[in-house]
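re: that chain from earlier
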Amino acid sequence: MKKVLGIVMVLMMVVGLMVPVFGSAESVKGHSSMYVYCANGKRLNVRAEPSQSSDLLFRLENGSKVSILGDAGNGWAKVSNDGREGFVKTTFLQAKKPAGSNFKSFSAKVYSANGKKVNMRVSANVNADRIAQLEDSTAIKVIGATGDWYKIQYANATGYMMKKFVRS
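^ sequence. v structure.
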């Protein structure tokens, strides 16, 4: 009996230690805002419903600040970011801004020396699919940087544009 009780106690301690590591729906309670944390540096999927099989609405960069709109249960929270709302897994939220996510977004305009439209792409690659072609002087928001590319927002789309075509 003592052996069984000892095993049960050890299992309870292990489970108790795992909850903070893996996160829980309780982690958003008491917070009006939190930050996205993806250990792999990738973007966080924001879904239409609190389910991984739900439609993908948009993605958030590591370090993005989100407003907590509510606890959706089962490890999901309803959040908003820049006027967009959706659901994310609470395991990817934390109270403090993650280290290495200090990019300051800024307003800018598309720059085209020859007057031609500039491509906005789905990834930071000249061969990536084109999301849109933007006119010279179109207002955009720069939300990140990677190599020779800026991550930008235009209308309801997020994509990439070469830095040489962006002026602040």
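Residues 14-26 have pLDDT under 50 and may be disordered.
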